[in-house]
Amino acid sequence: MQLIIGNKNYSSWSMRPWVLLKAFGIPFEERKLRFDFAPGSAFYQALAVYTPTAKVPVLVEDDGFAVWDTLAITEHIAERHPELAIWPHDARQRSRARSLCAEMHAGFSTLRNLCPMNIEAALPEIGAKHQAESSQLLADLARIDAIWSGELARSGGPFLFGEFSAADAYFAPVAMRVRTYALPLSEASRAYVERLVAAPGVRDWIADALAEQDFLDFEEPYRSGRG
Q1: pTM score
Q2: Which stretches within 156-219 are classed as H helix?
Q3: Is the dihedral of CA 150, 154, 158, 159 positive or negative?
Q4: Beta-carbon neighbour count of residue 227 at 10 Å?
Q5: Looking at the domain that runs over 2-84, which CATH code has it been given?
Q6: How far is CA 11 from the centre of its chain?
Q7: Which residue, 70, 73, 147, 166, has fewest beta-carbon neighbours within 10 Å?
Q8: Are strands 58-60 and 2-5 parallel, antiparallel or unpaired?
Q9: Sign (positive or negative) of CA dihedral 78, 13, 101, 164
């Protein structure tokens, strides 16, 4: 099967299923489309073949059947590979993991808007500025910290539900934001970020993002160039 993604440095939504597939050793072909949001661009033309949303990621089966939206893709992968613990084995833990992923999927708009994913950048001064000016960003960070530290305490770690699962893949882009903007977290959550960064799949995505060396000004509210 094929996974269609955007630029690895910027595309937080693409990161989630890519990391999940890599972490569980599920073979797939990567097709990366360089972001270009101009009307009629090659980016939009390529996506139009598979999805009416004109957004990445898209998972395409060998027969051309397409699944879009990260939650739908995650569930599709889990159904296709029931032998793997994509979601936790315990029924209540599965429901909790799904709840947290859905919360991330639908919420945290201030964190997303003020701190867009940019893996190669180091922007601690921007993070400090937004923390001083936005109470909602602080509320988003407090909720993230509560999720991570709470689940780690319940599971005993090293990941949110013990072993790496869809929940960890889903929160991986948040960990990227924490690093880029030097966002404050509890000691337990900071340690989780470091474990997540070193996890198979996440580590590989980061390496690929750093190797891109591609600068897209419309994705860069805080830099005028690389470096």
Answers
A1: 0.96
A2: 166-181, 187-198, 202-212
A3: negative
A4: 7
A5: 3.40.30.10
A6: 8
A7: 147
A8: antiparallel
A9: positive
Question: What is the tens place of the pLDDT at every residue in 166-212?
Answer: 999 999 999 999 999 999 999 999 999 999 999 999 999 999 999 99
Considering only the top CATH level, what class is 91-206? mainly alpha
Give 72's DSSP letter: H
Structure tokens given for 74: 């995650």
Question: Which are the contacts of 200, defined by CB distance < 8 A and separation ≥ 6?
Answer: 22, 23
Task: For the chain, give every domain's residue range.
Answer: 2-84, 91-206
Amino acid at 108: F
Strand intervals (E) in the chain = 2-5, 29-32, 58-60, 66-68
Residue 82 corresponds to which amino acid?
P
